[in-house]
Amino acid sequence: MICFCLNLVPRIVNGCCHAGVLIISGSVFGGKVTDNINNRKVQVMKHSEKLKILFLCTGNSCRSQMAEGWARKFKSDSIEPYSAGIEPHGLDPIAVKVMAEVGVDISNNRSKHLDDFKGVNFDFVITVCDHAHEHCPIFSGKTRVLHFGFDDPPRLAKQAANEQEVLDIYRRVRDEIKAFVEHLPDNLAE
């Protein structure tokens, strides 16, 4: 429970403040509150803001799209996910297919360039491929850049003997990314 005391000398009883003042409990999302006794305006800060996370890879066609899709499915309450590429290649239809198999629709996504997000203040930029990690630009401010690399399904698929092997490669990487995203943001701690 969250309590905000609006008097100048709060008294804490059982974790909440008392003494004839307005008590607000629960989640608070911005705005102003008026103390009914002294008619004071009090600014209430946001209780929790979503983390803005950019998943970055070379083409924004497969791995970063999967990560964004998983984050939207599992972490929409705590993460505002984005994905982009350093050199966008277009959305990979096999990535769309294997994500649809598990109920995550990324078919309306588009391959985006990193420049599309100029002005967005990300909390984290997560590079999901080595090339993006090696060529990742410098982000200013509070943004932390972290690298969590995953195999490149299109590259590995070139060595596959048949369509089933191709799908197995994409599914394996999809599931590895899912496991990573399910533990966000805890796995981002220093």
What is this structure's SSE topology?
Layout: E1 11-13, E2 16-18, E3 32-34, E4 41-43, E5 51-57, H1 63-74, E6 79-85, H2 93-101, E7 124-127, H3 130-135, E8 144-147, H4 153-157, H5 163-182
- SSE series: EEEEEHEHEHEHH
**What portion of the residues fall into strands of 2 or more residues?**
15-25%
Helix percentage range:
25-40%
The helix count comes to 5
Look up the CATH topology of the largest domain: Rossmann fold
Architecture of the largest domain, according to CATH? 3-Layer(aba) Sandwich
Structural class: alpha/beta
- Quaternary state of the chains: single chain
Distance between the termini: 28 Å
Number of strands: 8
Strand order across the largest sheet: 6-5-7-8
Rg to the nearest angstrom?
A: 22 Å
**Total number of domains:** 2
**Name of the CATH first level of the largest domain:** Alpha Beta
Average of pLDDT: 81
CATH superfamily of the largest domain: Response regulator
Shape: globular
Characterize the biggest β-sheet.
4 strands, parallel
> Ranges with pLDDT <50 over ≥5 residues?
1-47
Task: Write a structural description.
The chain contains five helices and eight strands; from the N terminus they run βββββαβαβαβαα. The chain is an alpha/beta fold and 190 residues long. It folds into two domains: 11-43, no CATH class; 51-188, 3-Layer(aba) Sandwich (Rossmann fold), CATH 3.40.50.2300. The protein has a four-stranded parallel beta sheet. A two-stranded antiparallel sheet has the order 1-2. Strand 1 (11-13) and strand 2 (16-18) form a beta hairpin. Helix 2 packs across helix 5.
